[in-house]
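During the reporting period the student researcher (J.K.) took over the structure-prediction task from the postdoctoral fellow and processed the backlog of single-chain submissions. One of the processed entries is reproduced below for the supervisory committee.
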Amino acid sequence: MNSNLRMAHGSRVYVTVIARNAADLITRATSDPVVIDLTPPIIHAVADGRDLNDVDFSANDSALTFSWSASDPESGIDHCTWAVGSGPGLDDILPRSSSPDATSSITASLSQIMVEGQLLYVTVTCYNHAEQSSWKSSDGVTIVTVPPGSTTAAVIVKTMSDTQYESRNGYQSQRHSLKAS
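J.K. obtained the following structure tokens:
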């Protein structure tokens, strides 16, 4: 057996076996090609949203939708796993689950998990057929289901010349519109 082989990335290798018996009869068999893949898969994008449309906020605290796209030009994607965590690479919110697809949109249940106000990250790890892997995390999505309080808003009527309607000491004669900031 030769253990000093140097095979180039992307090359096709064939294995040929020759057998000879005591009667000096010979048979030969050659394998299908094996592609040498020395690189991990490429994960193009991981998005907090469907169909690679990334969102930064979600009002849904019962489910999280996310998507990814990956490829491996040499040996192809064998499978990917995904997890949801409180930071990139973590799985402390939802543990790893497997998906056979290189490109996918998934909606995962968040029921029974308190996520209000949390920044959640989706981490996808993809494996090629040569058992190489790579991972990538989304930029995060904040779950917000509680609207802001109305006491935090302030309306100021413009009294300067940047309004098209003249203000008269806090009063206005125009009935159909008001310019405010």
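The committee noted the following: The chain has a mean pLDDT of 88.
J.K. will present the remaining backlog at the next meeting.
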